[in-house]
Write a structure and sequence with these properties.
Layout lengths: L1 H33 L5 E4 L5 E6 L4 E7 L2 E7 L1 E6 L2 E6 L2 E5 L3 E9 L6 E7 L2 H11 L13 E5 L2 H12 L7 H18 L3 H8 L4 H14 L7 H7 L4 H12 L3 H19 L4 H7 L5 H12 L3 H10 L1
Helix pairs in contact: 1-3, 2-4, 3-4, 4-5, 5-6, 7-8, 9-10
Amino acid sequence: MTGPAINTASHTVSHQTALTNQWQELTSLLTRHTEGKGDGFHQTAIAQMILQRASSVPTSIHSVFNPFFAVLVQGKKKVLLGKEIYSYRVGHCLVASVDLPLSAFVTEATPDKPYLGFKVNIDPRQLCDLAIKAGPAKPQQENDVRGLFVGPIDRPLLDCALRLARLLDTPQDIEVLSPLIMRELYYRLLTGAQGTAVRQITTSGSNMQRISRVIEQLKADLARPMKIETLARQAEMSISSFHHHFKAVTSMSPLQYQKQLRLLEARRLMLAENANASNAAYQVGYDSPSQFSREYSRMFGAPPIRDVEQLRTA
């Protein structure tokens, strides 16, 4: 009777040891490939992969993120979607299945033990192609699913992420092997704990896919006044149903979503293109500079001019 118990215990210890070794290897890889490059985001030789390093807190970023898969390797972070707060720590992955305006705050990092993580951009077309070839999931009624998933990463997905990161040490292999590993990564995303949300974006006519199309329209016509009736018609929903499903996916109303898009783009225009506050406000659809300043301050914690000056001197 004791034999199986011992074998089970031994297997558990072996499994935990293997996981620990994988995380240590990932930490070592990201440390080496970000060392000396400073804090921030760093593009890699793998086109879809971006590394992040932060050596102090608070470190924050506000941006509209396209669909992505991310792994936190060292440190801690909080992610805000609308008014929802997600805690993100070592051993967790984060998956966005639609374009989302997110605020992220590194909450644990030091020069000796910096925050480390990496993000892999997802190509929805390749994901859809693989979903078709992988076959349908188990039949189930479509439910409203948030477009952001944060939770523990499973072993197959971690193993796949590690093999992709290892390619940074053998750049001569990237062109041939990275597409193969990316394909497996998509498969793991479709079949893992986050699969419900990921699969819905690949399902023709799903609520999430229809909301995703509306989001693309909002991004493309940022300065145009929003007409809920038009957006609902584009989503092939009633106005009340459209409001419900949009908030279910993004955690905010269409108006709140558009407001965040506009403010983020205005901030980018001032930072990257040296636009003044009035011009940036006009370009993103604001008629009232005072309203723009109030809403900007509410989102970023400071008026436009002071916020941009702080970012440039940080």
